[in-house]
Amino acid sequence: MAGSQDALVLVTGASGYLATHCVQQLLNAGYKVRGTVRSVENEEKIAPLKALKGSERLQLVEADLTSEDGWDSAMKEVTFVLHTASPLPGLTATDDSTITAAVFGTLNVLKAATKAPTVKRVVLTSSSNALMDYDKLRAHPDHVFSEVDWPANLDNLSTYAVSKVKAERAALDFVDQLTADQHKFELVVIVPFLIFGPTLTDAVGASLGMLHGFLTKPMAKLPNISIPSIDVRDVAKAHILAMTAAGAAGERIAVVYQPSYRMTQLGHDLNEEFSSQGFSIPTEEMKQDDDTSALNPHLQILLKQRPYGADIKIDTTKMKKILGMDKLIDMKTSVIDSAYSFFERNIVEKREVVLVTGASGYLATHCVQQLLNAGYKVRGTVRNLKNETKIAPLKALKGSECLELVEADLTNEDGWDSAMKDVTFVLHTASPLPGLSSADESTITTAVSGVLNVLKAAAKARTVKRVVLTSSGLAILDFDKLRANPDYVYSETDWPENLDKLVTYGVSKVKAERAAWDFVKQLTADQHKFELVVINPFLIFGPTLTDVVGTSLGMVQRYLTKPMAKLPKICIPSVDVRDVAKAHILAMTAAGAAGERIAVLYQPSYWMTQLGRDLSEEFSSQGFDIPTEELKEDDDRSALDPQTQAMLKQRPYGADVKVDTTKMKKILGMDKLIDMKSSVIDSAYSMFERNIVEKREVVLVTGASGYLATHCVQQLLNAGYKVRGTVRSVENEEKIAPLKALKGSERLQLVEADLTSEDGWDSALKDVTFVLHTASPFPAPSAADESTIKTAVSGALNVLKAAAKAPTVKRVVLTSSGLAIMDFDKLRAHPDHVFSEADWPENLDNLATYAVSKVKAERAAWDFVKQLTADQHKFELVVINPLIILGPTLTDTVGSSVAMVQRFLTKPMAKLPKICVPSVDVRDVAKAHILAMTAAGAAGERIVVAYQPSYWMTQMARDLNAEFSSQGFVIPTEEMKQDDDTSGLDPHTQATLKQRPYGVDIKFDTTKMKKILGMDKLIDIKSSVIESAYSLIERNIVEKREGYRGPKNYNRLDHKLCRFLKR
C-alpha cells in the first residue's frame, strides 16, 4: 500500500474551525493535504492555514459548495475526503438557501468523488442535530440516543439543524443509489455534538459564539440545560481515524464526551478560571419559570428545543469500538482552552492592566510571566529603558507582546502617575538591594519613600482596585521571642520589636510595610481609596529568569562556587519564587485578602544543612564539592561568609522556626507548594543555564554517533555536563548532524578517534573526568569475522591505556552486553537458572561474532585494570551489561536490536518463533551509564541492566500489530511450533534460534541495578518497541504506509529529558 506521504487527503472548507484542526492533524501524521477555500486570494482567511506546521505539504484550491465548478479538479488523485464544509447556521427554519447550499454542496462533493477512481472513502461531518429528537426525550427522559436515531419532526429545528439532517440523508441516499458504471467509494458519517476547544482561525462559529457571549455579554442567570459537547481536537481525530478504521465504512458514528456537559457547569468553569482576570461570568442558575427574554437568540432556540433540566445521554459504543477513542479531552479543559485561544487571537480583548514595579527583578519577572500566561496586560517599571541587559529577559518572556515597559524609579516621584494610568492592580515588588548591617540608612529611606511614591500615585488613579505589596518574613520574625520560647509559632500578627539587631534589608522591609499600612489608613475622603494586601514571603529560592543574583540565590551560588567547610545548623524557612509570584497574583482578586498580611512559605521549615545535602546529592557527581558536615555551635565561625555570620547572630542555633500558614491556605487556596529540594536544585540549574555558575566535569563518550551513545550524550547535556564525543570523522556531516541537533549541543565537542588506532585517544582524554566507552564494532551474524573481535578488544584497550595516562580520569564506564553473561548451555541444563553478574558464557564457539567480541573486550578491560602498575594513573572501572536494547533512535543508523523492529514492519516473517528476547529501553541504558559514573559502590562491578519479566518475540509482534495494523502495516502474530520449518526466517532470527532453548524463559537477577544504581522503575518494553517503530517511521528509515497516524499516544518521542536522572 502507498505510504501516507503518497496519500492525498481533500479537506473541504479548509479554513473552517474544525477543518483547520483536521488539516493540522493530517499534516502532523505525514499526509499530503489539499484544502478547498472559496478564494485563494482571501489572505485573511487562508493565513491561518499557511501558518500551520507542515504547511509546505498543503495545497489550497478554489471550490464553492454552491457550484459544481472546481470539484472535479479538486478531487484529482485524492485517496480520502473529509467533507467538513457547511454553510453558516441560521436561527430559524425560514432560510431555505442555507439548507439548499448544504445539500447541494454535499452532492457536489460526492458526485466529484464518483468520477475520481482514486477515492477510497469519504468522511462526512454531520451533526448531533441529525440524531437528537427532543420530542422523544420529553416522552422518555431516560432515553439513550444512538446512531439509529433521527429527529422525526424538522419544523421546530433551526436552519442549521435542518441543513445537517437533509445533507446527511442526501449523502446516504446518493451512495446507496450508485450504479455499476460509477466509481464506488465508502462513506462514513461523523456525528459530533457541540464543538468547543481552541480555534486556529479568527472566525467564531455557533458553539464558540456561546463562549464568546459568556466573556463579552454574559447573561444574568444560566439556564439548566444539557449541552452534550466534545473538543474540536477529538472531532478532528475522529475524522482522521474514520478514514482508515476497519468497520467504519457505511457507519454513522456519534462523537461526544460523556457524561454530558451543562450550561451551568460551563459558567462555573469559566468563572473559576477568568473571574480573577476581570471577567464577570454568571454562575447563578435560572429557574424554569424565570423570564427568558433577555437571553440571546441562540440560547432561546436551545431552550425551546430541549426539556428543561433533562440529561441528554448518548451511546458512544461505536466511537470507542470502531475508532478506539475511549479517552477524550474533558470539557472543562476544552472550554478554557477555547477562551484562551480567543485572547491569543485577539477575538476577545484581555481585561485589566496590572502594574509590576521593578519588573526586571528576580521575583518580578516571575510575576510578569505568570500574569502574561493568565491573559493580563502588564505594565512593568524599570529604571532605564535603554538598559538592554536588564530588560532583555523581560522581552524574551512568552506573551511579551502584552507587556509594556515604562521608566520609574523608587527614589523619585516622577513617572509613577503616568505608570499608574488605567491600571487595575499593582504588584509592588521593587525593593532596594539588601545590605548586611543596619548602618546603610539610604537603603531604608529608599524602601520607604519608594512604597509611598507608588501608593500616592495609586491614590490619584481612580482605576486602581488593589495594591499587593511584597514585604518579607523578616517583617514577622522576632528572634528574641524565639529565644524565650523555642516552640513559638509565628503568624501575621507578629512584628520584630527590636530593629537594632536586623540587617538593613530586614529593617527596610519592616519600615516600608508599616509606612504602607499607615498610608492606607490615613487616606482622606477626597483621595481614591484602594485595598492593600501584603505578602510576607520567607527566603525565596527557585529558578531565575534574569542574570542578576540576589540574596537568596547568592546563597546557592556560594555553595557551588565558594562553599564553606562546615554548615551551621540554622533554620532558613523558605519558599519557591514561582509560589510567591502565584501568591501575589491570587492576592489581587482573592476574596478576604483585602487588608491582610499573608505569610507565604513552605512547611516544614528548611535548614542550611539540608540545603547542603540536597545540593551535594544532585551536584557532587557533576564536579561540585559541596559540604555536608554540620558545624557545631561552639566551632569557629570566622571562615563563614558575611551573610551566614549575620544570620547566625540573629537566630538561636538549632532552633526550628515555625510559622502559621492558615491565611495562605484559606485565603489564597495555596495548600500544595513546590518542595524546597526541587526549588534549590532548580535554582542551581537555572544558574548553569544562564552561565551565572560555570558547569564542571568533562565526560568523554566514545562512538558518540551511535544509537546508545547519542542518548548518553543527550542525557549528559541535560544534566549540565560538558561532553566530548569521539567520531571517526568530524567531516561526516550525515553522521554528526543528529549530535549537532541535540538540545544543549553548544556544550558538546566532537573529536576524531578510531577504535582501530591508538592515535587521538590521549588528546581525547585531556581534562576528562568520566569516560563512557560505548563504541563497538558493528556486529556480524557469524563468529567467522575475527577482525570485529580484534577491533573490540584493541579499541577497549586503546581507551583504557589513554585513561591510564590521564590523571583527571576518575572512572570509566564500559558498555558490555548481556551476551557476556548468558550461557545457553547452562540454561538448557537448568531451565530455571537465574543469570547474574557472576555468570559468563563458557563456550564461545557457538556465539556470534558480536557476542564473542563483547566477552573478550570486557575480559580484556578487567585484566588491564587489575594489572595497572604503580607508575600508571589508576581509575575505577564499571561495566554495564545491557540486554537487547530497544527504544527510539536519535540517528538514522539502525543497529541489530532496532533492526529486529524494522524487519517486523518491512519484511515480517509468516510465523514467529517462541523465543525469549530479554530487553531494555535505550533511555534506561543511557541513564544507567550516567548513574554508574558516580554511584557509590559501582566501582569494580558488572551491572546487568534489563527489564523484567523478560520479553518474547511473539509478544513483540502482538504489540506492534495492535499499534500499527490500523496504520497500513501487516504484522504476523501466529506462533511457530518448535518443529516447523525455519528456513524462511531471516539470518539473525535463525542464529538466535540456534543459540537459545525453544520456549524457555530467560531470567536475570537485577539486584545490583536496583541497589547500586537505584533503578527500580524502567520503561516497559511494549512502550519501548512501539516507540522504536515510530522513530524509524518518523525518521523515514521505514516508509510510512497509507493510514499512518503518527505517535499520538507515545509522547516520550518528544523526550524532554531535563533532569532525567532524578525522575
TrEMBL record:
Q: Where is the NAD-dependent epimerase/dehydratase domain?
A: 9-253, 354-597, 699-946
Give UniProt keywords alphabetically.
Answer: Oxidoreductase
**GO MF, one example:** oxidoreductase activity, acting on the CH-OH group of donors, NAD or NADP as acceptor
What superkingdom heads the lineage?
Answer: Eukaryota
Instruction: Spell out the Pfam families in the cross-references.
Output: Epimerase
What InterPro entries does the record point to? Answer: Epimerase_deHydtase, NAD(P)-bd_dom_sf, NAD(P)_dehydrat-like
The answer to keyword DNA repair applying to this record is no
So what family is this one in?
A: Belongs to the NAD(P)-dependent epimerase/dehydratase family. Dihydroflavonol-4-reductase subfamily.
Name of protein? NAD-dependent epimerase/dehydratase domain-containing protein
- The source organism is Plectus sambesii
